[in-house]
Amino acid sequence: MKSSINTKMSFFSQLVRFECAEDGKTYYADLGPDADGPPPLGTQLNAFRSLDDLASKTEKWTATVGRLLAPLPRDGIPVYCVGLNYRSHAKEAALAIPSYPPLWTKPAASIAHPNEDIPVNDFCAKSLLDYEGELVFITSKDCRDVSPKDAKNFILGYTIGNDLSCRFFQLQKNCGGQFFFAKAFDRFAPIGPTLISPELFENGTCFNVVTKVNGEVRQIADLQKDMIFPPESILSHMSQGTTIPAGTVVMTGTPEGVGAFRKPKTFLQHGDVVEVEMQKVGTLRNRMNFE
Predict the structure, then answer these.
(1) Tens-of-pLDDT digits for all 291 residues of the chain?
(2) Rounded distance between C-alpha atoms, residue 278 and residue 56, angstroms
(3) From the CB of residue 217, how many other CB atoms can be counted at a distance below 10 Å?
(4) Reduced to 3 states, what is the DSSP secondary structure of residue 124?
(5) What's the CA angle centered on 9, arms 244 and 25, to 5 degrees?
(6) Cβ neighbours of residue 252 under 8 Å, at least 6 residues apart?
(7) Phi/psi at 154 (5° precision)
(8) What whole-number distance in Å separates Cα of residue 66 and Cα of residue 41?
(9) In whole angstroms, what is the distance from residue 204 CA to residue 222 CA?
(10) In this structure, are residues 162 and 279 in contact, taking their beta carbons and an 8 Å threshold?
(11) Does the bond joining 98 to the residue before it have cis omega, within 30 degrees of 0?
């Protein structure tokens, strides 16, 4: 049976998923089109236990935001990632622009929440830890063999993420050109803090994704001028001959400015705070915690 999430037009504008302070359960709420990022902790919201309840406006609860969660429809689904999807990043890496979106996945255990400390064990801490601020989209229903024209009908919404990577295992001699291992560690895919509707995203033609490390701007992603493969092309390509489950997170690539190509090279250290931000979505903030 095909799986889907209620995709009735405009059933949310800006979605937040959170752990309730009162009962510890997970809730969803629509912040409306005028919100600019998530509410402060302690805010009371009209909330729902599922996206279907939110869409139908049934079983409404008043819940206090105790902890923000990655704005996912469901847990337990691997993350898809795209490489070399910005001209500026291909240039800084001295690599040719690909004819198709390069793809790999991260395990479901790589998902991390907004404001969550990222646990980095000694193995990863010694492996050249780096950041990649990215635009992210999430699928709304199972899809396979989707055309670029129809792909937008399978996108639930947009958010942002950080494709954390251990660059040591992206060196050719250590990976043979396969990037899965370098990016697949636990909590190496922070996502959030909110998910905005396709309508709200399409209205934001000047949106860009900004990445900061300890307050210093390192990356600015120009989604209109620098991105090579738009979300619809990515989803179409990855769905050829492959069923993409509803609720799949897709990280769409990073622009120039990663630590590996700075001069001198600059990698993340214990206590560093990485912030990824985009208009409407808000700021995704995570601290690196070397164990």
Answers:
(1) 466 666 556 699 999 999 999 999 999 999 999 999 999 999 999 999 999 999 999 999 999 999 999 999 999 999 999 999 999 999 999 999 999 999 999 999 999 999 999 999 999 999 999 999 999 999 999 999 999 999 999 999 999 999 999 999 999 999 998 899 999 999 999 999 999 999 999 886 678 999 999 999 999 999 999 999 999 999 999 999 999 999 999 999 999 999 999 999 999 999 999 999 999 999 999 999 999
(2) 29
(3) 11
(4) helix
(5) 70
(6) 82, 85, 134, 135, 136, 137, 227, 229, 231, 234
(7) -115, 10
(8) 6
(9) 12
(10) no
(11) no
288: tokens are 């690196």
- For β-strands 216-222 and 79-82, DSSP reports them as unpaired
DSSP state letter for 270: T
* Residue 176 to residue 171: CA distance in whole angstroms: 8
What is the rounded distance in angstroms from the CA atom of residue 288 to the CA atom of residue 118? 5
pTM of the model: 0.96
Closest alpha carbon to 72 in 187, 200, 193, 188:
193
Residues 202, 226: Cα–Cα separation, whole Å = 17
User: How long a stretch of residues is the chain?
Assistant: 291
Here the tokens at position 228 are 């090579």
Q: What share of the chain is helix, strand, coil (3-state, %, to 5)?
A: 20, 35, 50
Structure tokens at 96: 């040719």
Largest Cα separation within the chain, whole Å, is 55
Distance (Å, whole) CA 68 – CA 26: 10
Cβ pair 184, 107 in contact under 8 A: yes
